[in-house]
Amino acid sequence: MKEYFGILKQSPLFAGVSREALPHVLRCMEARTAIYGKGEIICHYGDRTPYGGIVLEGKAALVVPGEDGEESCIRMTGPAQAFGCSRSCSCGQPSTVTIIARTRTTVLFLKLSKLFCPEALGCQYAGLVMSNVLKETAAENLAQEQRIHIMSQKSIRGKLKMLLSQSALCGNKAVLSMNRQELADYLGVERSALSREMRRMKDDGLIDYCRNEITIFYKTA
Question: What is the pTM of this model?
Answer without folding.
Answer: 0.81
